[in-house]
Amino acid sequence: MNRLFLLLPIISFVFTGCESVEEISTPETSVQDVSQQTPRQTTSTLEQKQTISGIYQILSEQSKMYWSASKVTGTHEGVIRVPTGLLTLEDGAIVGGNFEVNMDTIQTTDAAGAGLDPHLKGENFFDATNYPLSTFVVTSATKEGNINHVTGNLTIKDITNPITFDATIKYLADGKISTTAEFTIDRTLWGIKFGSGKFFQGLGDKMIYDEIGFRLDLVFTKAS
Q1: What is the DSSP string of 139-201?
Q2: How many structural domains comprise the chain?
């Protein structure tokens, strides 16, 4: 891929909101598009479970991070596995958390992105061999209604920057909880400059936009 968008060698999570190159797409459009890739489970809002407190651990097989990035001539989107993570709640509000993203599992799901994955995992982008994990750690959070305003540190390729995003929690009928959030990062702040118009001139239609859009779709269960 001659351009990109993160979400990282793997992100060690905790929600935080931030900001490709061969074929990547604009975050605003793509994040909405990607949101249609996963079916939702039947849930009731956390308003019915305001007293939920405790530490919850991620269910990796049910949790994913979706990404979307664009270049001048098109957009790419895909998914990354989230193998580990914890979420701490007090009376239904997020008070802490973290998660990791396995950058070696980054996958392009759009038809035009065939063959792009090795490029995204390579040195020009996430360099998954040397930086297999990206992480996110929550540093602060406040709750308004059913929305959690989360701030945290996102680390990709050993570079850490703060991000902020809004996260929504839902209570699942089987006693689990799900968390969804969307954020956009500027990949160049994490040293991913390939195809960026900020750093290279005369790229023409080879230019890759700096923004990468992410959507977290995570499922947790109460830690034992």
Answers
A1: EEEEEETTEEEEEEEEEETTEEEEEEEEEEEEEETTS-EEEEEEEEEEGGGGT--TT-TTT-S
A2: 1
